[in-house]
Amino acid sequence: MGWVESLQQAIDYMEDHLEEPLAIEQIAKRANASVFHFQRTFAILTDMTVGEYLRGRRLTLAAHELSSTDNKIIDIAYKYGYDTPEAFSKAFRRQHGITPSEARKNLGGLKSYNRLVIQVKLRGAEPMKYKVVERGSFKVVGFKRTFSTLNDENMRGIPQMWQETNASGLDEKLFELNRGEIEGVLGVCVAGEGTHMDYWIAAETDSATEEFEEMEIPASKWGVFEVHGPMPDAMQDAWKKIFTEWFPSNPYEPAGTPELEVYPHENAYQPDSYSEIWIPLKNKEE
């Protein structure tokens, strides 16, 4: 089963169980993926997290039920996973801009989040610049933090980690240690056990250091993709093109080992900034 079909299968599973408690482990299992890689791929392709999708769909169905039935508001709140009417009303107003009571009386417009259908579009008008390289294992030094992938903790925590790194000057120390084939400071995503992941800010080096931790990146075949433009939009756009255009057109899929984002020493927010994405590859299963 291809990754597009697997992802759609997970979405269909979510849709079939919107009125029930859903664990991210159950959803990822339908996509034959780890929790980390499922959430990452889902966010890249849809521009929303799994939690945002579930919340949006449940509140969309709740709004339809409020406007088309006489079911009690408290019963609808419980049905779609809210423990109290107050929590339901707050979330409902955040999405729709009106209260559940106003929706029942048709006193305002509603915002609908429709069921997702994953489609791959054949575009290719803008060629992607990349290369496939073989590398043995290599060492990086840096520091890591472990994040939960539940409730989008990793989505909030990683940007904060970068802000603290830049403000403290640790990024400059890593640039000074950078002596390897990959030039720049790395953001390294490492899938962990269950609902946890490690994120490293690091640099490739052959030097020993007492200040930073050390990790060995395993030997792999890598897809190395050029990223042109200011952060963070250029990096996000590149990830989306890789998954929606490059992987469907090539005989590879992600290998599941650590993935790298490579950031330059110059100002990454300049219009002509150059960065890279390194993804370990394996051949697609027939």
List the helices and strands and how they pair.
Blueprint: H1 3-16, H2 24-30, H3 35-46, H4 50-68, H5 73-79, H6 85-96, H7 100-104, E1 130-135, E2 138-148, H8 153-168, H9 170-177, E3 185-191, E4 196-204, E5 213-217, E6 220-228, H10 233-249, E7 252-254, E8 259-263, E9 274-283
Antiparallel strand pairs: 1-6, 2-4, 2-5, 3-4, 3-8, 6-9, 7-9, 8-9
Low-confidence stretches: none
Helical content (DSSP H or I, runs of 4+)? 40-55%
CATH superfamily of the largest domain: Regulatory factor, effector binding domain
Q: Using only CA atoms, what is the Rg?
A: 22 Å
CATH architecture of the largest domain: Alpha-Beta Barrel
Shape: elongated
The biggest sheet amounts to: 9 strands, antiparallel
The count of β-strands is 9
* Name of the top-level CATH class of the largest domain: Alpha Beta
- Report the sheet-strand fraction: 15-25%
* Distance between the first and last residues' Cα: 8 Å
- The structure class reads alpha+beta
CATH topology of the largest domain: Multidrug-efflux Transporter 1 Regulator Bmrr, Chain A
Number of helices: 10
Order of helices and strands: HHHHHHHEEHHEEEEHEEE
